[in-house]
Design a protein that fits this description.
This protein is mainly β and 341 residues long. The chain contains three helices and 25 strands. The longest helix has 23 residues.
Amino acid sequence: MSRKLCLVYLIALFAVIVVAFADNISFASEEKGKLFAYVACEDRRIYVIDMDKNDLIFKTDEVREMGRPTAIDIDQIRGQLYVASERGYWQENYFPIISLNINSCPIKIIKEFPLIIDKPTGKFEGVSAVYEIVVSPDGNNLYILYAHPKYYGVSAIVDRNTGNLIGSIDFIIRKSSIFSPDGKEVAEIWPGGSKAVEKNGKQILREWSGGVAVFNIKQNKLISQKEIIKDKVKLTPPWYEIPYPLYVVNNHRNLRSINRNTGKTISEVDLEKITEGLNTSIKSPLIFDRGKKTVIPMSDKTGQGYTVLIDLEKMEMIRKIDVGKSPTNIVLSTIEPKCQK
């Protein structure tokens, strides 16, 4: 094989890998054979679930450096898990972002990233929580959403080696965002909906159309922002089709499936009914097995946590797996942990 042909092959292979991990790892189970869910809970532990066996295979010891998790993501290349947490009532400062090596046994913290500290302004203490962490496709940077007013509406860029802030972009990258195969662009897809607003002293229902926004990370520039009805776009990124509906969770309990061609609701299911009284704090469920299944972190009224697997074709619960209290964050990966029970 010539060097030029080999280079083309490697580029194509990289694109396939990126697509496999896009859109919440929807195609990963087909490509690699095994899929695992990593769940961060309020009891300061990480729980690992084998998605093929539908079973809990491992949980870490208590991680003292972790509080109530607010964000989680994984470097699919190096096997590093990043977790951000809120501070406790007894603390003056927020917990740092931590990085855990899931390729070691036991799973160990390999880095701590201090939070951004600005000079206090007024009553604001200057340090804020992190509510979104997304690892860049190449694993070199973290896109972070801080609650700090200075970073409202932008994603801070943090170097994963040093933990230093190296810039920001005028776009919020979320776990539900979808990167282009080369990692230079990112797409946000939003569903249509309606909202009660007041106009001339009366309550009216204002509707908005679903759409797609595409942002160039390198240029820090919004490339396009189109609506499905007005601009006749599909609710998919420009770089590839997604062959199943868009799923969102409304009001912590209603799982809605949306036609990506029309933006119309296909079905809406009450999660509390099919999960025996559980609810969730997430809005974008993780979809896998080519759109046939979803996994959602949920809690009962006492705060006891579960990871719930749902069959999206039958719209029924496959299984609920006990995890720690308030499992607010979950990520899927083909990386199998070294430690297992």
